[in-house]
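Take a specimen:
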Amino acid sequence: MVVGYYRWSKPNKKQKKLLLPPGSMGWPYIGETLKLYTQNPRSFYSKKLERYGDIFKTHLLGCPCVMVSSPDAVKFVLVTRANLFKPTYPPSKECMIGPWALNFHQGIYHSRLKKLIQATFLPSSIQAIVPDIERIVLGLLPDWENKIINAHNEMKRFSFDVAMVAIFGSELKDIDMEKMRDFYYRVHEGYNSMPINLFGFPYHRAMKARKSLDELLKKIVTKRRENKDGGGLVGALLRSVDQLTNSQVTDNLFGVIFAAQDTTASILTWILKHLSDNGALLDLVMKEQEGIKRELNKEKRGLMWNDTRKMPLTTRVIQETLRAASIVSFTYREAVEDVEFQGYLIPRGWKVLPLFRSIHHSSDFFIDPEKFDPSRFQDGTRWQKVSIWDGFIMKQSSHHSLERDFVTAKLSLGLIKLVPLSSLILIVLWEVVCKDDGVEYRPFPVPKQGLQVKVTPLLAEKIKIRGHVVNN
């Protein structure tokens, strides 16, 4: 069984008058999927943009696509004419996440679920799990001390555990975390593979794991529905006035896990990398965090939402990381009718991919874009032309995708990224043990080898400038 294909149809009169955007559709069915996912995506995009301009056609994961990369084009798709484009995914991804997930719906069902999910991830709600986030960080530290670790893998552990708390609440006794994590990782391995659901292919293995994960989630949901208990997102979904089925609940739970886990891990890893590369910047961030910590100790309380406003430098470091890493290169939309744009035809049913990465690295909007420079967000000059949202540029988009809602709450609002960052900066010393500055794509960009770092306890009397590279 092969999942996801596109059937070409005879062009109508309007289509005959307009040309498709320039570009290449690649091989039959395979298209240019392998090109995109087996090389540096920036190379793929830059070559296309240099040859074809800001709008071009391609073929990815069994779907004909049009990529747009100028701010005006992105605004056209996501804001001014958003009614012409619906949120979507390739069929293979929809099958994997689940048909009832918020991502794939509009109308009343979408609005209702969006309110429930957003309410769960408001700053006031996230603040309630700050002690749990701190507990997770502190629980990982003993496994790291005096060892060389893969920072990205450890950040994945952290972000997955935080996602579990946000979804199921602080009480996790009825959840087999290891089994849940194992099933999820197996699904993730096939997420961006060619959608060939035949034995031996990564997509087939991922779909088998997805089925096992769905069964596991439904058991948890059924038990909590019967006991009429449960915090976090699952509790909010089960308490919905219009009762949701188990399938509707589990698809949305899985969608939230998928939307948050890898993006969070990748960004936290890049923050560690950039701070390690700049000892002077790390010292300044450390002083800022120490000031917050002294205030919390004096008032005998934990971190609160208002405290994040007292971390301007840390916030700018996070903003610059979002821009420089551009974890999410694009998002998916689908033309609901034939659309004319800049003299080209975007046929009904084609995927439209607003491309964020090229804007984030354009000298038209950012001075010296390849330089990591948090100070560019200090005076708010040229960068205000675009917004940095972990790949989601248009914060006024009329239809928020699930990733946008969750990443905005989990990353851009600050608490979940500031809590572990504060703890790591104040508690441990990390030193990068690999000089290779290369990038790997899993599929999100991460430092080479996941950033190999040596972690040692940080004692107040031994604080020193960090950021130099040491040899194995």
Remarks:
- Confidence is low (pLDDT under 50) at residues 1-9, 381-385, 387-414, 460-472.
